[in-house]
């Protein structure tokens, strides 16, 4: 009888432990990203999510954009967000940085027939596709205007990706400005057409902007093996651009209240970084 009771007790304990392990659900954190097809949604967030395997956390990817993400953070509709570093200048909230990700690059693309040879050639006679109002590229464009007022009279269109390239091809737009990781799928498609040119971003005023003592923009050269078909000539080995970081952020209040989760996320971001860079940067 004692043996029977022992066996029943042991089975009950086993079932309890098994049920508890099976029933333990991961905590889902919503992370705001960019467009559904963009680098944040298709590369950065999924790799971070994979690096949370084995922890009690997982991610639900919520497409959006840098400004949209910051607004959702403040409304507590999401817990985390991937945004362009320069978007934090307009955050108007206590933001905690979980980790810095890959670099992103400003691109200015024109028709090969265009007389726009560098960013500083833009003037009020030109129309530039700069993306939707809440998107990261538009944020950077607005920051550029704040740094150099000469560009405030340049007309803009809220177009990006294929629609922007089509507008450029048809003459509706004189240039397409975007901020994205290297080898962006839409720019790669444009490169294949060999009808467009990537021009230099040469305005030194953009080099002076800082957020919490950290420089926001840095000059950088995009090598010719990234977009061979977008080089100004066969002799061009690189085109000058500006780079900035993508960052994973949360509200400072959330970080204070979820210290353990914050540390887990910071470790996952750090572990994810090499693969994210491998897939997005100038190598």
UniProtKB/TrEMBL annotation:
The keyword Signal is assigned to this record: yes
Keyword NAD in record: no
Range of residues in the leader sequence: 1-23
Keywords of this entry: Receptor, Signal
Any matching Pfam family: NMT1_3
InterPro entries: TRAP_TAXI (IPR011852)
Coiled-coil regions, chain positions: none
Record SUPFAM superfamilies: Periplasmic binding protein-like II
Source species, domain of life: Bacteria
Entry protein name: TRAP transporter, receptor protein
Organism: Desulfonema magnum
